[in-house]
C-alpha cells in the first residue's frame, strides 16, 4: 500500500496516488504540500483529508485564511497554531452560501485588516505590531538582514521605516520560546480527556517498550564489539583512542534495541577558537599537543585541524580495524552522505534479529564548558553532580558548515552529546513526574512511524532536533499533577508551532535555530503528521 503524503490516505500504487492528488489536492504540488499549505486548505481539502467529517457543517471561518472549523474551539486552536502573532478576533459563522452573517459582519467590519499594518518585505505576512514582524523575521527569514517594516499609509500604498535596533533584537529576542510555556498551556486546556485519547497514549507506551531480553542481548553484543574495536584501533594507531557512549540506548529512552552511537576521540590536546563568532555553532580547532606525526596530513601550517581530512584519515583507520576483528565479518558498511560526521555500519550481531545500526563518530574532546553556551540550571534534575558533570566537557565533530564562509574547510560543529545524554538520563529525577522521558519517547515514536510510512521523505529532522525541543518543555513542566494526555497534546501543540514557524531554538546555544537548514517540504510533512497525532489525543479520531 502507498500512502498520500498530504492527507495520509492509503492507495494500492503510485497511479492511485497521482489520481487522488489530481482531484483532492489539485492546488498543491505532487511532491507534498506547498509552503502556502496552511493558508490554502479549503473545505474540499478538509473533506478529502478527513472523510468521516464530510457531512459536518464547518461554519466557523478563519478571518486570516480560508480555514473552516466545525466549532469555535477548533477555530481558536487553529488560530493559536497558525496565526499566533495576530490578535484573535471573535469568530463569525457563515450562511449557506458561504458569506458572513450580516449582523456579525456589521459588528466586526473590516477593521482587523486595517490594524495589521506591519508587512513583511519577503512574504505576504502582515502583523499588528513591529515586534510580531521581528519575531516572524528571526524564525522564517534568518538568512536575510532585517530591513525595517512596511506600514500602510492613508493612500493604501506602503512605506518603509528602518529600525536601528532590529539587528540586535533579532539576535537577542527572536529565538525565545515561541509561545505560552507548557505549565500555563495545560492550565488553560479545558478539552475533555476522552477514553479514546487515554487508550491511544497507553497503546503507544506499549509500542515504545523494549523487551528486557532484546535489550540485554543487544547490549552484550555491543560491549563485545566495542572492546574488540578499541583494542584493535589502539594496536594499529600510535595514538591512544577513547570513546563514550551517547544516544538514547544509554539515556534509557530507546524505543528499540537496534541503534547505538559511539563518540571516538584521540588523547591529544586541542583548543577551540570561540572568539570567532561569525558562524554560530561552528568553530576552528587548533592543535595544542606537541607535534603528532600521525595527524600531520590533517593540520595546516598554522596548526588548524581540517575536519574533512581528519574524518577521512580516521575513517580509513576504521576500515582497517573492521578487516582485522572477528566481528567485522558480520558488519556491512553503509554508504552515507559525504557531509555526515558518522561512519555507519549495520552489525548483524544476533542471528534472526535485525542488524544493529552503529554510528562511529570521530571527534575531539574539549575540556570545560564553552563560553558561547548557556549555563545549565535545569530544575527538573535533582542531582547537582549530574549538571556539574554535564558541563565538564563538550566535543567538536566533522559536520560540514552549511554557511558560505571563507574558512568553511576549517570549521567544526560544536556538540553537546555528553550533556544531552546526562540530562535525558536523569530527566525524571526531580520526582514531580515520571512522564518526561515517556513524552520524549512518544515524539520519537511519531517521527519513526512517519519515516516508515514515507521512506526517504524525512532525512534531516533527527532525535537531536527533538531533544532541543523537549528540554525546553521540561524547563516549563507543570508543577501540579496533570493528566498525561493533556501534557502530551500540549507538547504536540508546541511542536506544531515550531514546525509551522520553522524554528526550534537550540537548548545550549542562544539564537541558534536547529530547523534552519531542514527543507520546507520535510517540515510541512512533519507538521501534518503531528497535527493528526494531536487530533487523536483530543479524541477526534
Automatic annotation (TrEMBL):
Domain (C2H2-type): residue spans on this chain: 60-85, 118-146
SUPFAM superfamilies in the cross-refs: beta-beta-alpha zinc fingers
EC number: 2.7.7.86
Keywords associated with the record: ATP-binding, Metal-binding, Nucleotide-binding, Nucleotidyltransferase, Transferase, Zinc, Zinc-finger
Biased composition (Basic and acidic residues): 25-40, 94-110
Keyword Nucleotide-binding in annotation: yes
Pfam families according to UniProt: Mab-21
Gene Ontology terms for molecular function: 2',3'-cyclic GMP-AMP synthase activity; ATP binding; zinc ion binding
Chain positions covered by the region annotation Disordered: 20-46, 88-110
Family: Belongs to the mab-21 family.
Protein name: Cyclic GMP-AMP synthase
Organism: Mytilus galloprovincialis (Mediterranean mussel)
